[in-house]
Amino acid sequence: TAAGIPIMAHIGLLPQSAALQGGLRMQGTTAKAAAELVRDAKELAEAGAVSIVVECVPLEVGAAVQAAVPDVPIIGIGAGGGVAGQVLVCDDLLGLHGSPPSFVKMYADLARTSSKAYREYTEEVRSGAFPAQAHYRNMKAEELGKFRDLMPDLWKNAMASLVVEEMKQPCWECKPTSVVAPSPSASGSFPTVPLAQRSNGSVPKQVTTTSHFLEFVAGRFSTMPKATLAQARTISHSPASGKAEAPPVQMLHTLADVRGWRKGMRKEGRTVALVPTMGNLHEGHLELIDEAKKRADDVLVSIFVNPAQFGAHEDLDKYPRTMERDIQLLQERGARAVFAPKPDEMYPTGSPGGTVVVPRFVQGRSEDACRPHFFTGVATVCLKLFNLCQPDVVIFGQKDAMQCIVITRMLEDLLLDETIKMLVAPTSRETDGLARSSRNMYLTAGMRSRAPAIYVALSSTTAAPGATAGGGRRAVMA
């Protein structure tokens, strides 16, 4: 101010306080906090501020701040109408990131419009409809011939990627009509071609256990072609330069955060797919995100290391927690929101809580024989998540087969199977057959090299005539 530079101040919700509090939280909600904001405004006005932005405070606090400094215009953002002016973030009022904070009025829904445009673009690239002849230009025939003569080896490879409809003129003058998926080179690498243009066959072949998804609806499983997953992988692995930047993942830390977010989605008529995880995400988790995006408008991922499913002697404290990396992966994969609560948020009276879900049909069987706490912990936390998030569809991986059976039985027994669809995706595996798991990091180099033998033994045994479960167990133990 001494140099004659006009200064606009900012009080209430600040970027640094939002980060520390885990999101957009109302400020000045107590008498003491409100009085501090008023004092801050007075001090800023006395210091020479020409205007003050007050953000995310109750209506009465905004009006009190304006009354305290009547000669300084107070600009409100989420502060009610008792101030001199208003401001909103452009992205919020235009709806560029979906559901904005509760104090924002969305004057447009550009997120939906943009998503529709990106979706149509992707579909046309994959089908070959784009680029059409109107969207590219050819070199002049004379220069094209010289180019061919200068680089004959490169020319042969380049032209192999073009389908020529007619050969009435020299090949180098023909106009390409569509794009053919490239094949791997001798080294196993792929040419630099946007993956949206590749067929499913150009994706390196992986070892898989089944070619279908299982969808559980209204008490019945139905199978679904796995081709949809390959398509989702193709899109998700496209070079970053060919994709529109996804909006930031919205972080939800409390029950109130989730309820508010879900209320906003429901108000907009948007469906939600829930992918429950314990974090330390790997490609298998991300494949579930890909499939979830095809099943609902928005994907909500929960990251919660559930203490109720760990025994006293197990690895609760050692379980890998990689939140920052997980958020980055989910951002890149297109998840809409992440629910990452602390244990006391999910278990206010302590884990496992006063009321639990006990799947009696599995007691003493399978994993329950040596981990009697496990399925009760899993069923209880999943029911809590389902009640809180109210998803239209939930997606699990077949790797945790018994867990999937427990959840489907719970949905059916508690009459939720017609409200929530459950999708079970095939086990995601490394190229050598090892099932992907967050706990694979516990394997030593020797253990890791031997681990694929389990899958090899299971596959060969189950494929043999007259295969039995006992035979499978004996083969693995051998």
Architecture overview:
The protein has 478 residues and is an alpha/beta fold. It contains 17 helices and twelve strands. α13 packs across α14. It is globular. It starts with 7 loop residues before the first strand and ends with a helix.
The secondary-structure class comes to alpha/beta
Measured between the Cα atoms of the first and last residue, the distance is 81 Å
Share of residues in strands: 5-15%
- Counted by DSSP, the helix tally is 17
Sheet with the most strands, sense and barrel status: 8 strands, mixed
Radius of gyration: 28 Å
**Mean of all residue-level pLDDT scores:** 79
Give the spatial strand order of the biggest sheet. 6-5-12-11-8-9-10-7
| Shape, principal axes of CA atoms | globular
Poorly predicted runs are 163-211, 226-243
Q: Helicity range of the residues?
A: 25-40%
Q: What's the total number of strands?
A: 12
Q: SSE order, as H and E?
A: EHHEHEEHHHHEEHEHEHEHEHHEHEHHH
Break the fold down into its secondary structure elements and pairings:
Elements (H helix, E strand, L loop, with lengths): L7 E5 L2 H7 L9 H17 L3 E5 L3 H10 L5 E4 L7 E2 L3 H4 L16 H18 L13 H10 L1 H8 L52 E6 L2 E6 L1 H10 L13 E3 L2 H13 L4 E6 L5 H13 L2 E6 L19 H11 L3 E3 L3 H4 L27 H16 L3 E5 L3 H13 L7 E5 L19 H6 L1 H12 L5 H9 L1
Parallel strand pairs: 1-2, 2-3, 3-4, 7-10, 8-9, 8-11, 9-10, 11-12
Antiparallel strand pairs: 5-6, 5-12
Helix pairs in contact: 2-3, 8-10, 13-14, 16-17
